[in-house]
Amino acid sequence: MDYKDIIKKMKDRNFEQMYLFYGREYYLIENALKVFKESLNEGMIDFNLDTIDGKETVLDTIISSIETLPFMDDRKIVIIKDFELLKGKKKNFNDSDEKYFIDHLDNIPETTVLVFAVYGEIDKRKSLVKKISKNGVVYNCDKLSDMDLFKWVKKKFDSNNAIIDNSQVMYFIDQEGYRDKTSEKTLSDLENEIKKISSFVGRENTVTKEVIDKLSQKKVENDIFKLIDYIGEKNSSNAIRILNDMIHEGESVLGIFAMIVKQFKVVMQVRQLQVEGYTTKVISEKIKVHPFVAGKALKQANNFSDDIIVDMLNYILESDYKIKNGLVRDTLAIEMLVTKYCQRKIG
Question: Where is the DNA polymerase III delta subunit-like C-terminal domain (predicted)?
Fold first, then answer.
Protein backbone atom coordinates (compact mmCIF):
# COMPACT_ATOMS: atom_id res chain seq x y z
CA MET A 1 0.00 0.00 0.00
CA ASP A 2 1.45 3.39 -0.95
CA TYR A 3 1.28 6.59 1.09
CA LYS A 4 -1.69 8.08 -0.80
CA ASP A 5 -3.77 4.93 -0.26
CA ILE A 6 -2.91 4.85 3.45
CA ILE A 7 -3.89 8.51 3.90
CA LYS A 8 -7.09 8.05 1.87
CA LYS A 9 -8.21 5.13 4.04
CA MET A 10 -7.45 7.14 7.17
CA LYS A 11 -9.46 10.12 5.89
CA ASP A 12 -12.32 7.73 5.18
CA ARG A 13 -12.00 6.65 8.84
CA ASN A 14 -11.04 3.15 7.76
CA PHE A 15 -8.29 2.59 10.32
CA GLU A 16 -5.90 -0.26 10.97
CA GLN A 17 -5.22 -1.27 14.57
CA MET A 18 -1.68 0.16 14.51
CA TYR A 19 0.73 2.11 12.31
CA LEU A 20 4.44 2.80 12.08
CA PHE A 21 5.60 5.79 10.04
CA TYR A 22 9.37 6.27 9.90
CA GLY A 23 12.05 7.82 7.71
CA ARG A 24 13.77 11.10 6.88
CA GLU A 25 10.82 12.79 5.17
CA TYR A 26 9.39 14.33 8.32
CA TYR A 27 6.81 16.25 6.30
CA LEU A 28 5.03 13.01 5.39
CA ILE A 29 5.14 11.76 8.97
CA GLU A 30 3.70 15.01 10.32
CA ASN A 31 1.01 15.01 7.62
CA ALA A 32 -0.07 11.50 8.65
CA LEU A 33 -0.25 12.53 12.33
CA LYS A 34 -2.33 15.55 11.32
CA VAL A 35 -4.85 13.26 9.57
CA PHE A 36 -5.15 11.12 12.70
CA LYS A 37 -5.83 14.17 14.85
CA GLU A 38 -8.40 15.56 12.39
CA SER A 39 -10.33 12.27 12.54
CA LEU A 40 -11.25 12.90 16.18
CA ASN A 41 -14.12 14.93 17.59
CA GLU A 42 -12.41 18.32 18.03
CA GLY A 43 -14.32 19.10 21.21
CA MET A 44 -13.17 15.87 22.87
CA ILE A 45 -9.63 15.71 21.48
CA ASP A 46 -7.99 16.31 24.87
CA PHE A 47 -9.61 13.10 26.13
CA ASN A 48 -9.01 10.94 23.06
CA LEU A 49 -5.54 11.86 21.81
CA ASP A 50 -2.39 10.94 23.74
CA THR A 51 1.04 11.91 22.40
CA ILE A 52 3.89 10.15 24.19
CA ASP A 53 7.64 10.82 24.03
CA GLY A 54 8.99 7.35 23.26
CA LYS A 55 12.49 8.26 24.42
CA GLU A 56 11.40 9.06 27.97
CA THR A 57 8.27 7.00 28.64
CA VAL A 58 7.85 3.86 30.73
CA LEU A 59 5.80 0.75 30.05
CA ASP A 60 3.01 1.51 32.55
CA THR A 61 2.34 4.87 30.91
CA ILE A 62 1.98 3.32 27.47
CA ILE A 63 -0.21 0.44 28.61
CA SER A 64 -2.48 2.75 30.59
CA SER A 65 -2.91 5.07 27.60
CA ILE A 66 -3.65 2.19 25.21
CA GLU A 67 -6.23 0.61 27.51
CA THR A 68 -8.14 3.80 28.34
CA LEU A 69 -11.42 3.83 26.41
CA PRO A 70 -12.45 6.84 24.29
CA PHE A 71 -14.75 9.48 25.73
CA MET A 72 -17.68 10.60 23.56
CA ASP A 73 -15.96 9.41 20.38
CA ASP A 74 -15.66 6.06 18.64
CA ARG A 75 -11.89 5.80 18.93
CA LYS A 76 -8.86 6.89 20.89
CA ILE A 77 -5.55 7.59 19.16
CA VAL A 78 -2.24 7.00 20.94
CA ILE A 79 0.84 8.45 19.21
CA ILE A 80 4.28 7.33 20.42
CA LYS A 81 7.17 9.34 18.95
CA ASP A 82 10.72 7.97 18.54
CA PHE A 83 10.04 4.85 20.60
CA GLU A 84 13.38 3.42 21.67
CA LEU A 85 12.34 -0.22 21.14
CA LEU A 86 12.01 0.49 17.41
CA LYS A 87 15.55 1.82 17.17
CA GLY A 88 17.46 -0.96 18.86
CA LYS A 89 18.09 1.03 22.04
CA LYS A 90 17.07 0.16 25.57
CA LYS A 91 17.25 2.84 28.23
CA ASN A 92 13.89 2.54 29.95
CA PHE A 93 13.01 -1.09 29.09
CA ASN A 94 14.51 -4.51 29.78
CA ASP A 95 14.00 -7.69 27.73
CA SER A 96 10.98 -8.82 29.73
CA ASP A 97 9.33 -5.40 29.31
CA GLU A 98 9.85 -5.62 25.57
CA LYS A 99 8.38 -9.13 25.35
CA TYR A 100 5.40 -8.19 27.51
CA PHE A 101 4.65 -5.11 25.41
CA ILE A 102 4.88 -7.02 22.12
CA ASP A 103 2.55 -9.76 23.44
CA HIS A 104 0.16 -7.09 24.73
CA LEU A 105 -0.27 -5.67 21.22
CA ASP A 106 -2.41 -8.69 20.32
CA ASN A 107 -5.00 -7.64 22.90
CA ILE A 108 -5.35 -3.88 22.67
CA PRO A 109 -8.94 -2.51 22.63
CA GLU A 110 -10.61 -2.26 19.22
CA THR A 111 -11.33 1.39 20.01
CA THR A 112 -7.60 2.24 20.23
CA VAL A 113 -5.51 3.18 17.20
CA LEU A 114 -1.82 2.93 18.09
CA VAL A 115 0.56 5.07 16.01
CA PHE A 116 4.36 4.97 16.14
CA ALA A 117 6.30 7.84 14.54
CA VAL A 118 10.07 7.57 14.20
CA TYR A 119 11.95 10.55 12.77
CA GLY A 120 14.74 8.59 11.11
CA GLU A 121 15.63 4.96 10.62
CA ILE A 122 14.36 1.95 12.56
CA ASP A 123 15.87 -1.45 13.29
CA LYS A 124 13.80 -3.64 10.98
CA ARG A 125 15.05 -6.78 12.72
CA LYS A 126 13.21 -5.85 15.91
CA SER A 127 10.31 -8.09 16.96
CA LEU A 128 8.20 -5.00 17.57
CA VAL A 129 8.57 -3.90 13.95
CA LYS A 130 7.49 -7.33 12.76
CA LYS A 131 4.51 -7.32 15.14
CA ILE A 132 3.31 -3.90 13.89
CA SER A 133 3.71 -5.05 10.29
CA LYS A 134 1.64 -8.16 11.03
CA ASN A 135 -1.13 -6.27 12.84
CA GLY A 136 -1.15 -3.02 10.90
CA VAL A 137 0.83 -0.79 8.54
CA VAL A 138 4.55 -0.01 8.40
CA TYR A 139 5.53 2.74 5.98
CA ASN A 140 8.93 4.23 5.16
CA CYS A 141 8.44 7.98 4.61
CA ASP A 142 11.26 8.40 2.11
CA LYS A 143 11.57 10.88 -0.75
CA LEU A 144 8.67 11.09 -3.18
CA SER A 145 8.87 9.44 -6.59
CA ASP A 146 9.25 11.69 -9.64
CA MET A 147 5.54 11.68 -10.54
CA ASP A 148 4.33 12.12 -6.97
CA LEU A 149 6.84 14.92 -6.47
CA PHE A 150 5.64 16.68 -9.62
CA LYS A 151 2.01 16.50 -8.49
CA TRP A 152 2.90 17.65 -4.98
CA VAL A 153 4.88 20.69 -6.20
CA LYS A 154 2.16 21.69 -8.67
CA LYS A 155 -0.51 21.42 -5.96
CA LYS A 156 1.58 23.52 -3.54
CA PHE A 157 2.02 26.32 -6.09
CA ASP A 158 -1.74 26.20 -6.78
CA SER A 159 -2.54 26.42 -3.06
CA ASN A 160 -0.27 29.46 -2.81
CA ASN A 161 -2.23 31.12 -5.64
CA ALA A 162 0.70 31.14 -8.05
CA ILE A 163 0.32 30.22 -11.73
CA ILE A 164 2.97 27.81 -13.02
CA ASP A 165 3.00 25.58 -16.10
CA ASN A 166 4.28 22.01 -16.16
CA SER A 167 7.65 22.83 -17.73
CA GLN A 168 8.41 25.35 -14.99
CA VAL A 169 7.40 22.83 -12.32
CA MET A 170 9.97 20.43 -13.77
CA TYR A 171 12.56 23.22 -13.94
CA PHE A 172 11.91 24.15 -10.30
CA ILE A 173 12.36 20.50 -9.21
CA ASP A 174 15.63 20.21 -11.18
CA GLN A 175 16.95 23.45 -9.69
CA GLU A 176 16.16 22.42 -6.14
CA GLY A 177 18.00 19.09 -6.49
CA TYR A 178 15.58 17.24 -4.19
CA ARG A 179 16.08 13.97 -6.08
CA ASP A 180 19.90 14.11 -5.96
CA LYS A 181 21.38 11.17 -4.05
CA THR A 182 23.47 13.45 -1.83
CA SER A 183 20.67 15.96 -1.23
CA GLU A 184 19.40 16.37 2.31
CA LYS A 185 16.49 18.54 1.17
CA THR A 186 13.03 17.63 2.39
CA LEU A 187 9.52 18.51 1.32
CA SER A 188 9.51 21.15 4.06
CA ASP A 189 12.47 22.82 2.34
CA LEU A 190 10.65 22.73 -1.00
CA GLU A 191 7.49 24.12 0.56
CA ASN A 192 9.46 27.07 1.97
CA GLU A 193 10.92 27.77 -1.48
CA ILE A 194 7.47 27.55 -3.08
CA LYS A 195 6.10 30.03 -0.55
CA LYS A 196 9.00 32.40 -1.18
CA ILE A 197 8.55 32.28 -4.96
CA SER A 198 4.76 32.59 -4.74
CA SER A 199 5.05 35.59 -2.43
CA PHE A 200 7.58 37.20 -4.77
CA VAL A 201 5.41 36.93 -7.92
CA GLY A 202 2.20 37.87 -6.10
CA ARG A 203 -1.29 36.39 -6.09
CA GLU A 204 -2.49 34.94 -9.43
CA ASN A 205 0.76 35.87 -11.20
CA THR A 206 2.94 33.55 -13.26
CA VAL A 207 6.11 31.83 -12.07
CA THR A 208 8.78 32.02 -14.77
CA LYS A 209 12.21 30.46 -15.23
CA GLU A 210 13.75 33.86 -14.54
CA VAL A 211 11.99 34.11 -11.18
CA ILE A 212 13.02 30.57 -10.23
CA ASP A 213 16.63 31.37 -11.15
CA LYS A 214 16.52 34.60 -9.19
CA LEU A 215 15.23 32.96 -6.01
CA SER A 216 16.52 29.39 -6.31
CA GLN A 217 18.35 27.80 -3.41
CA LYS A 218 21.25 26.96 -5.72
CA LYS A 219 21.69 30.66 -6.41
CA VAL A 220 21.52 31.39 -2.70
CA GLU A 221 24.16 28.72 -2.00
CA ASN A 222 26.38 30.13 -4.74
CA ASP A 223 25.94 33.61 -3.29
CA ILE A 224 26.99 32.29 0.14
CA PHE A 225 30.08 30.72 -1.45
CA LYS A 226 30.90 34.06 -3.11
CA LEU A 227 30.26 36.03 0.09
CA ILE A 228 32.62 33.79 2.08
CA ASP A 229 35.20 33.90 -0.74
CA TYR A 230 35.15 37.71 -0.80
CA ILE A 231 35.50 37.87 2.99
CA GLY A 232 38.46 35.48 2.75
CA GLU A 233 39.99 37.72 0.08
CA LYS A 234 39.26 40.78 2.27
CA ASN A 235 37.26 42.24 -0.63
CA SER A 236 34.69 44.20 1.39
CA SER A 237 33.08 46.05 -1.54
CA ASN A 238 32.15 42.85 -3.42
CA ALA A 239 31.13 41.13 -0.17
CA ILE A 240 28.75 43.98 0.67
CA ARG A 241 27.39 43.95 -2.91
CA ILE A 242 26.57 40.22 -2.74
CA LEU A 243 25.07 40.72 0.70
CA ASN A 244 22.82 43.57 -0.42
CA ASP A 245 21.67 41.58 -3.45
CA MET A 246 20.66 38.65 -1.25
CA ILE A 247 18.72 40.86 1.15
CA HIS A 248 17.04 42.67 -1.76
CA GLU A 249 15.94 39.31 -3.19
CA GLY A 250 14.19 38.36 0.03
CA GLU A 251 16.78 36.44 2.07
CA SER A 252 16.61 37.20 5.78
CA VAL A 253 19.73 38.19 7.67
CA LEU A 254 19.21 35.36 10.16
CA GLY A 255 18.86 32.96 7.23
CA ILE A 256 22.14 34.24 5.76
CA PHE A 257 23.82 33.83 9.13
CA ALA A 258 22.55 30.23 9.32
CA MET A 259 23.93 29.43 5.85
CA ILE A 260 27.32 30.95 6.71
CA VAL A 261 27.46 28.84 9.88
CA LYS A 262 26.52 25.72 7.93
CA GLN A 263 29.23 26.33 5.32
CA PHE A 264 31.94 27.04 7.87
CA LYS A 265 31.11 23.80 9.68
CA VAL A 266 31.66 22.01 6.37
CA VAL A 267 34.97 23.90 5.92
CA MET A 268 36.22 22.66 9.29
CA GLN A 269 35.12 19.10 8.56
CA VAL A 270 36.75 18.90 5.13
CA ARG A 271 39.99 20.41 6.42
CA GLN A 272 40.26 17.72 9.10
CA LEU A 273 39.46 14.92 6.64
CA GLN A 274 41.96 16.30 4.13
CA VAL A 275 44.66 16.25 6.84
CA GLU A 276 43.74 12.60 7.40
CA GLY A 277 44.50 11.96 3.73
CA TYR A 278 41.02 11.57 2.18
CA THR A 279 40.23 12.67 -1.39
CA THR A 280 37.53 15.22 -2.21
CA LYS A 281 35.24 12.44 -3.47
CA VAL A 282 35.59 10.39 -0.28
CA ILE A 283 35.21 13.52 1.87
CA SER A 284 31.94 14.42 0.11
CA GLU A 285 30.61 10.91 0.75
CA LYS A 286 31.68 10.93 4.40
CA ILE A 287 29.99 14.23 5.26
CA LYS A 288 27.13 13.71 2.78
CA VAL A 289 27.51 16.86 0.69
CA HIS A 290 27.79 17.33 -3.07
CA PRO A 291 31.40 17.05 -4.34
CA PHE A 292 31.12 20.65 -5.59
CA VAL A 293 30.35 21.83 -2.04
CA ALA A 294 33.25 19.80 -0.63
CA GLY A 295 35.59 21.23 -3.29
CA LYS A 296 34.54 24.81 -2.52
CA ALA A 297 35.00 24.19 1.19
CA LEU A 298 38.54 22.88 0.64
CA LYS A 299 39.44 26.05 -1.25
CA GLN A 300 37.89 28.22 1.43
CA ALA A 301 39.83 26.32 4.09
CA ASN A 302 42.99 27.92 2.72
CA ASN A 303 41.65 31.40 3.55
CA PHE A 304 40.40 30.81 7.09
CA SER A 305 42.13 29.29 10.10
CA ASP A 306 40.08 27.34 12.62
CA ASP A 307 40.62 30.15 15.15
CA ILE A 308 39.14 32.74 12.80
CA ILE A 309 36.18 30.48 11.95
CA VAL A 310 35.42 29.91 15.63
CA ASP A 311 35.67 33.65 16.23
CA MET A 312 33.21 34.32 13.39
CA LEU A 313 30.79 31.67 14.62
CA ASN A 314 30.84 33.23 18.07
CA TYR A 315 30.23 36.66 16.52
CA ILE A 316 27.22 35.26 14.60
CA LEU A 317 25.85 33.59 17.74
CA GLU A 318 26.14 36.86 19.67
CA SER A 319 24.56 38.83 16.80
CA ASP A 320 21.69 36.34 16.58
CA TYR A 321 20.91 36.98 20.25
CA LYS A 322 21.14 40.76 19.85
CA ILE A 323 18.89 40.80 16.76
CA LYS A 324 16.22 38.63 18.37
CA ASN A 325 16.23 40.84 21.46
CA GLY A 326 16.10 44.12 19.55
CA LEU A 327 19.59 45.20 20.60
CA VAL A 328 20.92 45.69 17.07
CA ARG A 329 19.42 46.05 13.58
CA ASP A 330 19.86 42.86 11.58
CA THR A 331 21.38 44.50 8.48
CA LEU A 332 23.86 46.43 10.62
CA ALA A 333 24.95 43.25 12.40
CA ILE A 334 25.79 41.42 9.19
CA GLU A 335 27.45 44.45 7.60
CA MET A 336 29.63 44.71 10.71
CA LEU A 337 30.60 41.05 10.28
CA VAL A 338 31.75 41.69 6.71
CA THR A 339 33.66 44.83 7.68
CA LYS A 340 35.29 43.22 10.71
CA TYR A 341 36.59 40.12 8.96
CA CYS A 342 37.54 41.80 5.71
CA GLN A 343 39.86 44.05 7.70
CA ARG A 344 41.21 41.28 9.90
CA LYS A 345 44.29 39.34 8.99
CA ILE A 346 43.15 35.83 8.11
CA GLY A 347 45.20 32.88 9.34
Answer: 221-341
Q: Give residues with Cβ within 8 angstroms of 224, minimum separation 6.
A: 256, 259, 260, 263
Residues with Cβ within 8 Å of residue 246, at least 6 apart in sequence? 220, 223, 227, 256
- Comparing CA positions, the residue from 152, 202, 114 lying closest to residue 31 is 152
The SS3 call for residue 150 is helix
For the question of whether the overall pTM of this predicted structure is more than 0.85, the answer is: no
- SS3 state of residue 57: coil
- Paired strand residues for 206: 163
- Listing DSSP states for 291-346 in one string gives HHHHHHHHHHHTT--HHHHHHHHHHHHHHHHHHHTTSS-HHHHHHHHHHHHHHSPP
Ordered structural domains, the chain, with CATH: 3-140 (3.40.50.300), 146-215 (1.10.8), 217-343 (1.20.272.10)
Q: How far apart are CA 113 and CA 9, in angstroms?
A: 14
Residues 149, 170: contact at Cβ < 8 Å? no
Q: Each residue of 129-155: b (16+ CB within 10 Å) or e?
A: bebbeeebbbbebebbeeeebbebbbe
Contact between 20 and 137 under an 8 Å Cβ cutoff? The reply is yes
pLDDT in tens, 180-236: 766 778 898 899 899 989 999 999 999 999 998 888 767 777 788 889 999 999 999
